[in-house]
Amino acid sequence: MKPDLEKIVLSAEQIASRNQEVAQEIDVHYQDCERDILLITLLDGAIVFTADLIRNLNVPLHLDCIRVSSYGNSTNPETAPRILGTLKSDVKDKHVLLVDDILDTGNTMKKVYNEVVKKEPASLKTCVFLDKPERRQNDFQADWSGFNIPDEFVVGYGLDYAGRYRQLPYLATLKPSVYS
Ligand code: 5GP
Ligand code: MG
Questions:
Q1: 118 Cβ partners below 8 Å, 6+ apart?
Q2: Could you tell me the residue range of the domain that residue 97 belongs to?
Q3: 147 assigned to some structural domain
Q4: 134 C-alpha to center of ligand 1: Å?
Q5: 123-161 pLDDT, tens per residue?
Q6: What is the spatial distance between Cα 113 and Cα 151, in angstroms, rounded to a whole number?
Q7: Distance CA 110, CA 140 (A)
Q8: With CB atoms 3.0 to 4.6 Å apart as the test, which of 2, 4, 11, 102 could cross-link to 130 if both were Cys?
Q9: 66: helix, strand or coil
Q10: What is the pLDDT of residue 2?
């Protein structure tokens, strides 16, 4: 796997340390919240970030998942994001935190946000591991974001290329030869 990598963008240590900061900010935001929050993670990409984030959070939470698909075996959005399946939780009157791996065009988060808002949560916030502001196609902004990164396709820490590299504990770019 390592020969496929071009460079490390974020080390495991950088990621772990930033996750603690983000979790602390989220804890502060919800500290006076009387009810457990509902954290909804967007599968598959956010699985690793979510697993680490929730272990740094003190706010009592319930976890639910939505599966969203927007990429095929390419590095560009194939189609409009599709929400696959439904939530097991009732969202109405809950304090909901949506978690995704990366805010790129913003289309995925915007779509999921609009779907969740229709279910009348008490509040709705968003947290992403990565943000690529240059690529945005709408006005969507996350309430919390781990890192801003330039417009480069990255893998690792849950993010894949053609289904691979999710298991890398760091974030990296791939050699151009991998795509050809
Ligand atoms: P958006 O809808 O904001 O354009 O993109 C959201 C989804 O596209 C992310 O959740 C992620 O799955 C995928 N994506 C966007 N940029 C990258 C990237 O640099 N690397 C990988 N592996 N996936 C990305
Ligand atoms: Mg994703």
A1: none
A2: 13-151
A3: yes
A4: 13
A5: 999 999 999 999 999 999 999 999 999 999 999 999 999
A6: 23
A7: 6
A8: 102
A9: strand
A10: 87
Give residue ranges with CB within 6 A of ligand 1. 45, 70-71, 77, 81, 100-108, 153-155, 159-161
Give me the number of domains the chain comprises: 1
pLDDT tens readout for residues 86-134? 888 899 999 999 999 999 999 999 999 999 999 999 999 999 999 999 9
In the residue annotation, 104 being an active-site residue is answered as yes
The answer to the question of residue 6 being in a domain is no
Domain contains 175: no
In a domain, 174, yes or no: no
SS3 annotation, the chain: CHHHEEEEEECHHHHHHHHHHHHHHHHHHCCCCCCCEEEEEEECCCHHHHHHHHHHCCCCEEEEEEEEECCCCCCCCCCCCEEECCCCCCCCCCEEEEEEEEECCCHHHHHHHHHHHHCCCCEEEEEEEEECHHHCCCCCCCCEEEEECCCCCEEECCECECCECCCCCCEEEECHHHHC
CATH code of the domain containing 80: 3.40.50.2020
